[in-house]
Design brief:
The complex is a heterodimer of chains A (206) and B (265). Chain A is an all-alpha fold and 206 residues long. Chain A contains 10 helices and no strands. Chain A is globular, with a radius of gyration of 21 Å. Classes of the chains: A mainly alpha (206), B alpha+beta (265). Chain B: It is an enzyme of class 1 (oxidoreductase).
Chain lengths: 206, 265
């Protein structure tokens, strides 16, 4: 299962490469490349965030084993997106890139998202998970709840006029994060009920 | 597109032309859709050439509604290769075919009250599927100051690459103002009006912080969200420096002497 999903995750890159090779990226291939890599970075972020809700809803526990790989693919496309901006769009003009990061809010936000994603990618190995301990590892990886909105905001703010796509992304993200909020709330009330025996059955005399 | 015969006009550049394929497939024309591929993709199935009239009105002695033929025929078609700089920081070099706007406007004898000219695009959701959405407040409206409209560089174009305009490029009649950002070059014009006050243009209505009335190409005044210092010439890898007034400063800078171009962006 895993190798198949791995191959599927590489398809967008292969498709992009094919379009570039056959001249199907249009008159402005650099812009098209950056946009498409950014789109896939966001999509993989949303897909990775969708694993846990889907697993809970369906009971398919094998989905959980794909989560780390899907998250790493989000990081992979983020890195390609960033590299294409730095190398293709700005051609390593570091001073221009620095100015843009400071001046353009959507780029500031995008860079912040990359920075926050970095520790998650670094700590994705089993060794790092053991070293950190499950509790701290999970706490750290909750950063993705911030990274997701940053990514969607980055896209939203750079769009010139048509907000359809960012709005779809924002709606999906809202559902995925909202589901967690509800699940968390339910778990808390459930555990509170367990803690206080009186809550489960109302006192018979009062 | 039908072939056009045109004499070489003045101001023609000696720069490598952007391939015709790119000029006719990479277009911002929201009347078809927001993606730059939309116009070329949708135009063949939606846009139907029909008898085209242009209403000329407002502060002038001889207003009237003319067929496209009658509007253009009295003038000699010229071919002029101009730079085109989009506000999105890409550029092209396009061999336009058209007539100087000034010559056309003079026939209607604008009065002393005609301080500005307002242009309007056709509204017809049958041939412009993008107008079924509220992406912009249709019709698309653009405007020029009268001296800008009368400037010898300003062209009323009917063709490019020696043929009549394709729908995606603004058939059958569009404006070309080479020292301004591309969105000033309103497409598929049906109305020209002489006015005392400047038009509230479509992009000004849509995002007043980002798009002004003048929209002169200016590497020193950034778009709020991106730099205008450089541009990518379509077909080139490295960006090139953007020139003040898109390289036409010698001809037009005097129109704006004494104006703060950061305020009047």
């Amino acid at each position: 299962m895993k190798p198949l999903v791995f191959a599927l995750c590489l398809l967008p890159l292969a498709w992009l490469g094919w379009k570039g090779y056959s001249g199907l990226l249009g008159a402005n291939p650099i812009e098209a490349t950056i946009r498409e890599l950014g789109d896939w970075a966001l999509r993989f972020l949303l897909i990775a965030l969708g694993v846990t809700p889907l697993r809970r809803l369906t009971g398919w526990s094998w989905l959980g084993r794909l989560r780390r790989m899907l998250g790493l693919f989000a990081f992979f496309y983020v890195v390609l997106h960033l590299l294409s901006y730095v190398g293709l769009d700005q051609f390593f003009d570091w001073s221009a890139i620095g100015r843009e990061i400071i001046k353009r809010k959507y780029i500031t936000i995008g860079m912040l998202a990359v920075l926050l994603l970095l520790p998650l990618a670094v700590t994705s190995t089993d060794t790092m998970l053991r070293r950190l301990g499950g509790r701290r590892w999970r706490a750290l990886h909750r950063l993705v709840y911030v990274i997701g909105p940053l990514g969607v905001a980055h896209h939203w703010m750079m769009v010139k006029k048509d907000l359809t796509q960012p709005m779809i992304h924002a709606a999906i993200l809202a559902v995925l994060l909202g589901w967690r909020l509800v699940a968390w709330h339910n778990a808390r009330t459930a555990s509170r009920r367990q803690e206080s025996p009186c809550a489960a059955s109302p006192p018979s005399s009062a | 597109a039908a072939p056009l015969t045109a004499a070489k006009g003045p101001f023609t550049l000696d720069e490598a032309l952007t391939p015709r394929k790119d000029v006719t497939t990479y277009n911002n024309f929201y009347e078809f859709g927001p993606d730059k591929g939309d116009p070329a993709q949708l135009a063949p199935s939606y846009f139907k050439p029909k008898p085209w009239t242009v209403a000329v009105s407002g502060e002038c002695a001889k207003p009237g509604t003319l067929g496209l033929e009658d509007l253009i025929k009295p003038h000699r078609l010229e071919e002029r290769t101009y730079r085109m700089r989009c506000v999105e920081a890409w550029s092209m070099v396009i061999p336009w075919v058209g007539v100087p706007l000034a010559e056309v406007l003079k026939r209607f004898e604008p009065s002393s009250k005609a301080k500005f000219v307002e242009f309007t695009t056709l509204v017809d959701a049958e041939i412009f599927p993008g107008q079924r959405t509220r992406l912009l407040d249709w019709p698309y409206v653009e405007g020029l100051r009268i001296d800008e409209a009368m400037h010898p560089l300003t062209l009323l174009a009917v063709g490019l690459y020696g043929e009549t305009l394709l729908p995606q490029n603004g058939a059958p009649l569009r404006l070309v103002v080479p020292w301004k950002y591309g969105f000033k070059g309103i497409k598929s014009i049906v109305s020209i009006r002489f006015t005392e006050t400047p038009a509230r243009t479509s992009w000004m209505k849509s995002a007043p912080r980002e798009y002004g009335f003048y929209a002169n190409v200016n590497p020193k005044v950034d778009h709020p969200r991106w730099s205008q210092a450089k541009e990518r010439r379509i077909g080139e890898f490295l960006k090139r420096d953007t020139l003040p007034f898109n390289g036409y400063g010698e001809q037009v800078a005097s129109l704006y002497s004494g104006m703060d171009l950061a305020v009047n962006f």
